[in-house]
Specification:
Elements: E1 7-11, E2 14-18, E3 26-38, E4 54-66, E5 71-82, E6 85-97, E7 102-106
Length: 107
Amino acid sequence: YLPDGRVMTMRADTGHFEAPENNPRRGTLRGNVVLRIYQAEGGREADLETERDLRMVVYLDEADFDLELAQVVSTGPVHVTAPDADFRGRGLSLNYNQLRNRLERVE
């Protein structure tokens, strides 16, 4: 769960997490990595079972993440889909500014 009420799910074939007190902090995901970001309207909880509240999907071969730094990095192929965007490329570096509640950098 992100501070702004959005929900991000992560799935991969394999992964390694550092999770003190059962709270993931950083890790590595490998093979068929899928990041999904959901955001509900009207103060209700996001529906993670359907695509009703799905806002963005990111497909990667691998990804390293650090939730304390709010950073996701990948050097492999990237495919991003959203209601108003669909692009493919290679390499991703994403930083999220929690104070401003927005993405600061996507490369």
